[in-house]
Amino acid sequence: LGNFIMKVNLKCDGINHSARDSVSHFTEPLQAKLKDMMILGADVTHPSLASIEGCPSIAAIVGPVDNHSGRFLGSMRLQNQERKDREPKNGASKPRSELPARILSYRDRVSEGYFGKVVRDEVSAIQSPFGDFKTEKK
To answer: Given Cys at both, which of 1, 9, 22, 135 links 14, Cβ 3.0 to 4.6 Å?
Structure first.
């Protein structure tokens, strides 16, 4: 029943969770930093050696769509083996009504040799939809 109520609450634009703590001397500085920040999480899972040849990789990203980090949208894409970067460039929904001042992106399982390419390619992929959003708002 509790899970059902939380789902209904989210559908009614309620808040089920937020980044808070009961210790105010700790949370006030934390809340100030999190206020205008969007936190994204992403991962790419590649097929194992035992997989069928040509089996695609799976790329996924999730991020909040509200100012309380309580409502999330995610996107998952299949990628062929030639393209191993994270999508969704244009597949993500529009961000909140106000653009975040900062974006913190967590990315799992990146080897040292691949790290520079991930930073170069994925930072621009994260920034791209926000540039489109700014243009539309003018």
So the answer is: 9
What pLDDT does residue 60 have? 92
What would the 3-class secondary structure string for 41-102 be? EEEEECCCCCCCCCCCEEEEEEEECCCCCCCEEEEEEEECCCCCCCCCCCCCCCCCCCCCCE
User: Which CATH number applies to 37-137?
Assistant: 3.30.420.10
Domain residues of the chain, as ranges? 37-137
Q: What is the pLDDT of residues 48-94, one digit of tens each?
A: 999 988 899 999 999 887 766 677 889 999 988 665 544 444 444 45
